[in-house]
Amino acid sequence: MAHQTVLVVDFGGQYTQLIVRRVREAGVYSEMVSWTKAAQAIEEKEPRALILSGGPRSVLEPGAPHLELAPYAGQIPILGICYGHQWISANLGGRVERADDREYGRRALHINQPSSLVGTMEQGQVWMSHGDQVLEVPTGFRVTGETASCPVAAMEDAERRIYGVQFHPEVSHTLSGRAVLQGFLDRAGLTRDWTSQAFIEETVAAIRAEVGEGRVLCATSGGVDSSVAAALLTEALGDQVTCVFVDHGLLRKNEAQEVVDAFTNHFHPRLVVIEAQDQFFSALAGVTDPEQKRKIIGAEFVRSFEQHADELSGCDFLAQGTLYPDVIESGSPTAAKIKTHHNVGGLPDWMRLKVIEPLKWLFKDEVREVGRQLGLPEAMVEREPFPGPGLGVRILGEVTPERVRIVQDADWIFRSELRERGLHKGIWQSYAALLDVRSVGVMGDERTYQQPIVLRAVQSEDAMTATAVPLPYDALEHIANRIVNEVPGVNRVLYDLTSKPPATIEWE
Ligand code: XMP
């Protein structure tokens, strides 16, 4: 990337991704890199500033995450956070000690000396989470802040532009945390040029350079990521792009039509719509195991492509709407496989496609902003994430057209009520799922023996963790009544209160 970059060195901290986000929100491009590859990345990317993240280990342990700072001290401005703060001290000649008690939670920070960094904080509440602490600062440093139990909560060597804070400026519990990060970016002399417009211009140029006269296949689900990727590619390449939309019959009510309308009305790509409902339903008949369903849906996507070989065989590139959190997550050697997430993997042999992922450096909210800049309608840009296998993972047990109809109708009622009541704002995902059990009820003096609908609405920043939305009881009650009355086949409605973890966002 041509930008001035802030490289965030990950020492294994829980909030490292958040640091990257906060820096970008301040208008400066940032990437994260594992400490194991940091020296090489610094050489290659020539960052204008380094931020050293927190981490769960102790700098005093042998083999703990490390980065020799001497080559950069005085050359590149450095900010250490938590473990990074301790590492600066340990590595540049200060002293770190194991504290008797772990300090965890909100603390009051006292500023000891004038500081261009922590001195800019208007509110003193900071968030601490550490065991070890810095007891002596390296030569050239001054202690600029302390808390009741942490003698060196902030330190700086203003001349070499090296700063350390024991607290976490990136979390919202540190009330003036943004001022600390912005102060650091200012000290590092960075200009705020990371905007979605700049991203679009650069990416369009990069796509043109990479693709040349080639042709691009853009598989789209109608979700935000693939739609923005399609719009960006169409902006760069016009008719060289063919968008393919597979209607597998597992979309929300009216969604397939909305996708086609939005595409044709807003950025006019070449669009191939594959009507594959019957094909997917026959492949799924009788299948109840979640992983098997996911695999069948993935395989049927491939078959749908195969059946359109004539239209698609001239393509050289496959565009995917991969985002930065996907890149970070798939780079993690320890991440356990919870679900087979559907991507267009295992394509037929005749499609020898190079993959392009124009959004792979962006977070979801940045993708939405790029979509807005490209003129996509708000309804599309604000669309909630929707899983590739669609309602297939929201219908427990066998997927049949009748059960799809039930979920679609219940989902429609739930989400339109949320919208009409203004409750949809701030919700990450909301949906109805259909369970694979029956229960007894009574309706108009008749016994019923039918299936329950589960409603789920979650808040989340990045889908890695989520909590149930505390919807008002009267709204839930009204929605439950409407569903039971208006959707044949349903006689009970439940609301899912479970967070992720231990549950996941989707039911399968
Ligand atoms: P879970 O259920 O694992 O979901 O908490 C996390 C996020 O991923 C979405 N999801 C998928 N997205 N293909 C996708 O493109 C999939 O197979 C898939 N499964 C889950 C889910 O909706 C949530 O946003």
CATH architecture of the largest domain: 3-Layer(aba) Sandwich
The assigned structural class equals alpha/beta
CATH topology of the largest domain: Rossmann fold
What does the oligomeric state look like here? single chain
Give the overall shape, derived from the CA principal axes.
globular
Number of domains: 3
* Unreliable stretches: none
Largest sheet: 8 strands, mixed
Strand content: 15-25%
Bound molecules: xanthosine-5'-monophosphate
CATH superfamily of the largest domain: HUPs
Q: Which whole number gives the mean pLDDT?
A: 92
Number of strands: 20
The rounded distance between the terminal residues' Cα atoms is 38 Å
Radius of gyration: 26 Å
Keywords:
508 residues; alpha/beta; Rossmann fold; GMP Synthetase, Chain A, domain 3; 3 domains; 8-stranded mixed sheet; 5-stranded parallel sheet; 15 helices; 32% helix; 23% strand; binds xanthosine-5'-monophosphate
Helices and strands, with pairings:
Layout: E1 5-10, H1 16-25, E2 29-34, H2 38-45, E3 49-52, E4 78-81, H3 83-91, E5 95-108, E6 110-111, E7 125-136, E8 142-146, E9 154-157, E10 162-165, H4 177-187, H5 196-211, E11 216-220, H6 224-237, E12 241-247, H7 255-266, E13 270-275, H8 277-284, H9 290-306, H10 309-312, E14 317-319, H11 324-330, E15 354-356, H12 364-373, H13 378-381, H14 401-420, E16 429-434, E17 439-443, E18 446-459, E19 467-468, H15 473-486, E20 490-495
The structure holds xanthosine-5'-monophosphate.
Structure, explained:
Helix 5 (196-211) crosses helix 6 (224-237), helix 8 (277-284) packs antiparallel against helix 9 and helix 14 packs antiparallel against helix 15 (473-486). The protein has helices spanning 16-25, 38-45, 83-91, 177-187, 196-211, 224-237, 255-266, 277-284, 290-306, 309-312, 324-330, 364-373, 378-381, 401-420, 473-486; strands at 5-10, 29-34, 49-52, 78-81, 95-108, 110-111, 125-136, 142-146, 154-157, 162-165, 216-220, 241-247, 270-275, 317-319, 354-356, 429-434, 439-443, 446-459, 467-468, 490-495. The strands form 4 sheets. The protein has an 8-stranded mixed beta sheet with strand order 2-1-3-4-10-9-8-6, with helices on both faces. It has a 5-stranded parallel beta sheet with strand order 13-12-11-14-15, with helices on both faces. Strands 16, 17, 18, 19 and 20 form a 5-stranded mixed beta sheet that branches. The chain has 3 domains: 5-187, Class I glutamine amidotransferase (GATase) domain (Rossmann fold, 3-Layer(aba) Sandwich), CATH 3.40.50; 196-381, Rossmann fold (3-Layer(aba) Sandwich), CATH 3.40.50; 394-495, GMP Synthetase, Chain A, domain 3. 42% of the residues are buried. The protein is globular. The chain has 15 helices and 20 strands. Xanthosine-5'-monophosphate (XMP) binds next to loops. Residues 338-339, 341-342, 385, 387-389, 429, 463, 500, 504-506 line the site of xanthosine-5'-monophosphate (XMP).
